[in-house]
Design a protein that fits this description.
With 316 residues, this protein is an alpha/beta fold. It is 49% helix and 12% strand.
């Protein structure tokens, strides 16, 4: 997320109270709903109503609610409920857009995309819904990440990622201390960041939609230690370099080389946290022949050095 977006979110802490509305368009007991609602509800309880109010409305109730002023509105439904778009969805979406920050979780992301409101925006759509996107709608930049914050639009793929999304919002607005209190209450050991990907095979995400893209990413994932060049990958999948770059830009919001670098760094981070390989070994295993290049690239993506990342494991 660009620093400007982070700064804008952090400013919400000065609202007294900050008013957050969750429009529940699905089953209240779903994993998506529970993962999002419980951390925010606990944050509101710990901060008190003078600082944070988290409210819930059904779609019809929100569509005709007299109260218009919300700071953040999220349209929430599990991915399995995508076909159950509320009859009042057009009014609900228009009202949600009146808030300074707004977005969707799970199937709510699909409904926003189909309404043409995510054109050019990085959005985290549940992988299972990629084929349900209206191809006539404005093109969103769907990423494989757990959640995205792009300007004033927030999206999350839902499911178990909802709790990571909610806890990240708590940290961005109110700080790590409050987040730690909620993590302890909910027995959450680690909050996954927005740069982490939905854990599902690439073939499932893109196989039918863009088989060449799926093939290219599979090649990248199979060649972490000895990375291929963009030209090599393009040739192996039967595309020109320009065609490959166009596919990556449209569906993953990144150039192939940058996406590949992200895969290698994600793998490095996993090895730093889950194994006892030395930092030098981890760098070599992820295709970095220079320790300084590894450290610089790692810091640019994650905001800390490989050594600091390893220290997190030791401190934990």
């Amino acid at each position: 997320m660009p620093p400007a977006d982070l700064a804008r979110l952090a400013q919400l802490a000065h609202e007294a109270p900050l008013r957050v509305l969750l429009v529940n368009a699905g089953e209240p007991g779903s994993l998506t709903w529970s993962g999002l609602y419980q951390p925010l509800r606990l944050a509101a309880r710990l901060l008190g109503p003078q600082r944070l109010l988290v409210d819930v409305r059904g779609p019809d109730e929100f569509a005709f609610d007299a109260l218009c002023h919300w700071h953040l509105v999220l349209l929430v439904a599990d991915e399995s409920e995508a076909a159950q778009k509320p009859a009042s969805s057009r009014i609900v979406i228009e009202r949600a857009r009146a808030a300074p920050f707004w977005g969707g979780v799970g199937a709510g992301v699909l409904w926003l995309a189909d309404a043409g409101l995510l054109g050019g925006v990085r959005a985290a759509l549940p992988w299972a819904l990629y084929l349900d996107v209206d191809t006539n709608a404005d093109h969103a930049i769907f990423t494989p990440h757990l959640f995205e914050i792009d300007g004033n639009r927030l999206t999350c793929c839902g499911g178990a990622a909802s709790i990571d999304f909610a806890l990240t919002l708590v940290e961005l607005v109110y700080g790590v201390t409050l987040q730690a209190q909620i993590k302890e209450t909910l027995c959450v050991d680690r909050v996954r960041g927005m740069d982490e990907r939905q854990r599902v095979a690439l073939q499932a995400r893109f196989g039918a939609l863009q088989p060449k893209l799926s093939e290219a990413v599979t090649l990248m994932e199979a060649n972490i230690e000895e990375p291929l060049s963009t030209d090599d990958i393009a040739g192996l999948v039967g595309l020109s370099r320009r065609q490959l770059e166009r596919l990556f830009k449209q569906y993953l919001g990144s150039l192939p080389s940058r996406y590949y670098l992200g895969l290698r760094l994600q793998r490095a981070r996993q090895l730093l946290l889950d194994t006892n390989y030395s930092i030098v070994q981890v760098g070599l295993m992820c295709g970095f022949s220079s320790g300084s290049h590894f450290s610089t690239a790692f810091g640019a993506l994650f905001g800390n050095t490989p050594r600091e990342e390893r220290q997190r494991k030791l401190n934990g």
